[in-house]
Amino acid sequence: MARRHLLLLRNYLTSPPILSFPKPLVHHRHLCHLRRHLCSAGGVPDHLRDRILLLTEKPSDFSASIPDAELREVRDRISLIAVELLSVDDVGDLAGVLEAVSVVELIRRYGSGLAFVELLSRMKSKPQFALEVFNWRRKLVDEGMPMLAEEYSKAISLAGRAKNVDLAASLFYDARVTHGMRSTCLYNALMAAYMYNGYTRKCVSVFEDLKKDPDCNPTIVTYNILLSLFGRSMLVNHMESVLQIIDQSDDLSRNLKTYNTVIAAYVTAWMWDQMESTFRQMETSPIQPDSHTHLLMLRGYAHSGNLERMEETYELVRELVSNHEVHLVRVMICAYCKSSHPDRIKKVEALAKFIPEEEYRPWLNVLMIRVYAQEGLIESMDHFISQAFTRDTMVTTSGIMRSIISGYFQCGAVDRLAMFVRKAEQAGWRICRSLYHCKMVMYGRHNRLEEMHGVLDEMEVYKLNPTKKTYLIMFKAYLKFGRRFEAESVLGMMWKHGFGSPEDAFIV
User: Which family does it belong to (predicted)?
Assistant: First the structure.
């Protein structure tokens, strides 16, 4: 049975996914429980910042025998030490700080590894610094403080976070071969490091090695890593095959990370029905959604345009999203902009207040220009156009340019249009013939016929040859205001360029 299970993962790239299995495939004697997922960015934009640490195990017995008051005290102390270490400018000064703050005493006092693993976790924002601290820790082995598998596991995770998979593999080898450590958490950490950096085959290869190891068994964390590996690659069929293995095992069961990983994969693949069904299944299970689950669902509803469910979910995590998840605020704004919601401007403006100046995104700026143009709100549209010019944001699609033109045209703002065209030309925005045709029409409506004729010279600069429509605009404008001679001249140019003449071109 175990061999059949192994072959499923080994051949995942070359064979179709196996969607049915006879009996439970594997029986594991040991399970490690993944700590409850903290809120993160939901799979997108810094959405991977905590993934590698969340997918690796922490010792389950770290704090079992430590009183709560003492546990809080040591964690507070570790927090202060981490802040001091992270404030160091030169990595070479870390050893001096570590000795000055008596980290050795903490390591001796908590032989379970609590203090040091906690310290490495607090330094994840600077993985290179954390790895240097780990190197310092390894030198203490000669002083009677042997290394623990959990400490190596954390270091392997940090190496993956630093995108140094060679170092991660080297640390794994050192733990397994040099120190003879036998722990599933080491395999899980290396798998996560490979997964995090996109080494799909290597990640599966480590899983195969784990299956062959008589001293270790895969845990639910192991399978969560595989789920994430396939989910991130949008290999949904393979992910679902792994999920079947979990569901058909006597010793494995889905946990919070399992559900969140599967939902994230369906969101990534834009499989909205499967996303929804997984969430409903989770709600009826013993594992209840957390804030991270709701953030994932919020993203999915926004991308799918399900505004009703998006708004319901937003109410559950409003404070978290508004204060900490700016990327989801942008996604919600995008959903409203693409919708026909009657109050979309009101909704957009309410959300836009939560986006700081430093979180400027060119694509969102352009989207705001378009939505205000569609609503005919020229003042607001001009504001975002000015912002785009100031920040050197370029519009390169004709669709956005036509929306802007339409906005000015609906309000009859010919001078604003003329000014916009000049600035767009200077800024290198997409120049299209519609810009100039719209100017000509508006000049013609206001009897500014000389300026209308001057648009031909502007078109020539950008090598935009007049079309039949160009001459028709001029002809009708001259005809409307009784400028018979100029209208006849336009007819002549139309014949000259092979466009014939309009049906109403007969002049008495």
Answer: Belongs to the PPR family. P subfamily.
Handedness of CA 65, 69, 70, 71 (dihedral sign): positive
Give the residues of the chain that fall short of pLDDT 50. 1-64, 506-508
Q: How far is CA 266 from CA 235, 299, 427, 450, in A?
A: 10, 11, 40, 59
**Contact 203/187 with Cβ under 8 angstroms?**
no
Q: What are the CB-based long-range contacts (under 8 Å, 24+) for 288-291?
A: 289/259, 290/36, 290/37, 290/39, 290/256, 290/260, 291/39, 291/317, 291/320
Q: In 3-state terms, what secondary structure has residue 435?
A: helix
How far, CA to CA in Å, does 373 sit from each of 305, 324, 381, 433, 485? 21, 30, 6, 19, 38
- Confirm if 440 and 473 have CB atoms less than 8 A apart: yes
pLDDT at residue number 112: 65
Looking at the whole model, is its pTM more than 0.90? no
SS (H, E, C) 208-231: HHHHHCCCCCCCHHHHHHHHHHHH
Question: Which residues are within 8 A (CB) of 101 and not within 5 positions of it... i.e. 6 or more apart?
Answer: 81, 84
**Rounded Cα–Cα distance for residues 44 and 296 (Å):** 9
Specify whether the CB–CB gap between 329 and 354 falls below 8 A: yes
363 C-beta neighbours (distance < 10 Å), count: 10
Residue 52, phi-psi category: left (phi > 0), alpha (psi -120 to 50), beta (remainder): alpha
Residue 504 is classified by DSSP as T
Q: Give the per-residue pLDDT at 306.
A: 97
Task: Residue 498: count other Cβ atoms within 10 Å of its Cβ.
Answer: 7
- For the chain, give every domain's residue range: 451-508
**Residue 463 near residue 432 (C-beta atoms within 8 A):** no
pLDDT in tens, 379-428: 999 999 999 999 999 999 999 999 999 999 998 899 999 999 999 999 99
What is the structure's pLDDT at 97? 86
447: left (phi over 0), alpha (psi -120 to 50) or beta: left
Q: Is 115 helix (H, G, I), strand (E, B) or coil?
A: helix
- Residue partners of 261: CB distance under 8 A and separation at least 6: 224, 227, 228, 231
In this predicted structure, what is the pLDDT of residue 143?
Answer: 83
Instruction: Report CA Rg, the chain.
Output: 32
The closest alpha carbon to 470, from 430, 443, 508, 506, belongs to 443
Is the CB of residue 120 less than 8 Å from the CB of residue 78?
no
CB 104 within 8 A of CB 36: no
Position 107 scores a pLDDT of 82
For residue 113, what are the CA distances in angstroms to 73, 145, 181, 363, 422? 16, 10, 15, 47, 66
